[in-house]
Amino acid sequence: MLLALLALLAGCARQHPGASPTTRVQTLQHAEAAPSGWDATAPPVAGWVPVKLTDFWDKRWPRHNGVVWYRLHWNQADPNAPIGLLLDYVCLADEVWVNGSLLHRDPSLVEPLSRRWITPQYFVLDQPLLHAGENTLLVRVSGIAAYQPGLGVVRIGDPETVQAIYRKGMFWRFDIHLFNFAISAVLGVLFLMFWLLRRRETVFGWYALTTLLGAGYAWTFVTLSPWPFATTDGWESMNAALYVASTSTFCIFQLRFCEQRWQRTETALLLYSAASLLATLLAPHVMGPLRNVWALPMIVPNYAAIMLFLWYAIRTPRADLRVMAACMLVPALVSLADLLVYLQIASSSDYDIGAATTPLTLVGMGFAVAWRFSAAMRRVEGFNAELRHEVDVATTQLSETLSREHTLALSHTRIGERLNLVRDLHDGFGGSLLGAITSLEQSPPSPEATRTVATLKELRDDLRLVIDTTTREQDTDLAGLLAPLRHRWSQRLETAGIDSFWRFDGLDDCRLDAARSLDLLRFLQEALTNVLKHSGACRVDLLVRHAHEQLHAEVRDDGRGFDPANLASRGAGLASLHSRAARLGGRLAVQAAPGAGAALQLDCPAP
């Protein structure tokens, strides 16, 4: 919002009214003025005096409260061409006549007076209002001497050009004040809620009170009616009281923000604010005309508090304080120029520069207070996050410990049962199997006996595989388990006329538990059995590689191959291989084609 406002300010600066073609706009600075009473409906016949606009009649008639008529003349060459009419300043209420015809009248020309004193007034004049030759503009101004009543310069000319000047004037004199009022009200309500939710942060409360009182004071620039006050004195006295109160609370806010508590100074400021409010309620007719007597002394503590804050911000390396100090410094310097204009020490400016810089102060204060609130919230959130992290870590460690103990207990139980089973197989089934092989080998040779001995030896080798992987310690050395398998299967493949080539890479530090070792050996055994029975191959290559915590096993032959799309016809062998790959936590890949051999590849984690 502030960036949009500054962009608009820059645009207005580039389009200053002085850049308009003077040939298209005429500025009327000379007029005649005559005073009259509140109930005057027509201009006086006598008493007219020449004046130069902008004119404040309190200098000429310092005690005159009522009506002053202003009369201006200009020549119109072409009455058929419409022109724009702009009244730059009218205080407080007015009635406008052109060539004897009423053009505009404020809702209330007597107390309580309407308040169009800050906004310019724009009209378009056309036939039959315009006359060829001399035209007369008559402005009836109702005002009170204590509040700088009078009339500003009048501009006439091309409607579009005059209207552009009017829009710029409305922006500087009305829109900026409306923006100040809106942002003050919003920030005030927002930080009031912060303070209500966290009473210990009194800085929020003082800032909310400052901005809400400032919003009440800013309302005087945008309202068109003195409601709810019955007189202009009542309205002006309340404005002065709001200014005193907002300035006092602003000083206290700055002290509290600097972590300073000057109890006597704060008490004096609050008592002064209460006295101004009491005077407003009890004697508005006195407080209104004497508003400067109450308001101007607040300039001293206001600038003193600003200087103290700037000094504190320079000495304290905090980003929020420095941003706020930078946002306060520019409006503080600009306000000095506006103060000189208000006191009529310097000439009046077309634009209220202080109003343009007020949003910078509000945004700076809002940023600083929000920064402080955000820092407090970050500390709380950081503590909560740290506490949550510690609880999560403790919970995870406890869960891991319990899971580890449960896994170890279950593993020990299974190992014990497997050892008992293996001992029974070794002592019982193994002895019987060895006796049968010995008996058949000593019997007369025959083809059936030879086939039976070969089958019994396969059963014996399988039993040895189970015993080797079960009776060894947990995390068995994989290379040590593969050596017997290689020895047995090399002889068996050689007998079948199949050349075997074995390759082991990176297995020196690879150790698997008993169950995983058995699954891997079973996988290789089943793959070699398929090669031996079904492939008709002349060569088989077996690779087992361990790298980067991954185990890769591959069995490749140059046999007749098969169609992978018809896996269901291959029997239970491939299903068993897939099942073992799943138990190892890996995946099985099958590469085969009719007449082009086959390859089985297993990849599984092996940390």
Describe what you observe in this structure.
This is ATP-binding protein. The protein has 607 residues and is α+β, with helices and mostly antiparallel strands. The chain has 3 domains: 25-157, Jelly Rolls (Sandwich); 172-373, Rhopdopsin 7-helix transmembrane proteins (Up-down Bundle), CATH 1.20.1070; 473-605, 2-Layer Sandwich (Heat Shock Protein 90). It is 55% helix and 18% strand. The protein is built from 14 helices and 20 strands. The protein has helices at residues 2-14, 159-197, 202-218, 232-257, 263-282, 284-287, 291-295, 299-315, 319-342, 353-442, 447-471, 478-495, 514-535, 572-583, and strands at 25-28, 30-36, 49-52, 55-56, 66-76, 83-87, 90-91, 93-98, 101-105, 121-125, 133-143, 150-151, 154-157, 476-477, 499-505, 511-512, 539-547, 550-557, 587-592, 598-605. A hairpin with a 2-residue loop joins strand 8 and strand 9 (101-105). Helix 4 packs parallel to helix 8 (299-315), helix 12 (478-495) runs parallel beside helix 13 and helix 13 (514-535) packs antiparallel against helix 14. The chain is elongated and about 160 Å long. Mean pLDDT is 82; it is low at 1-22.
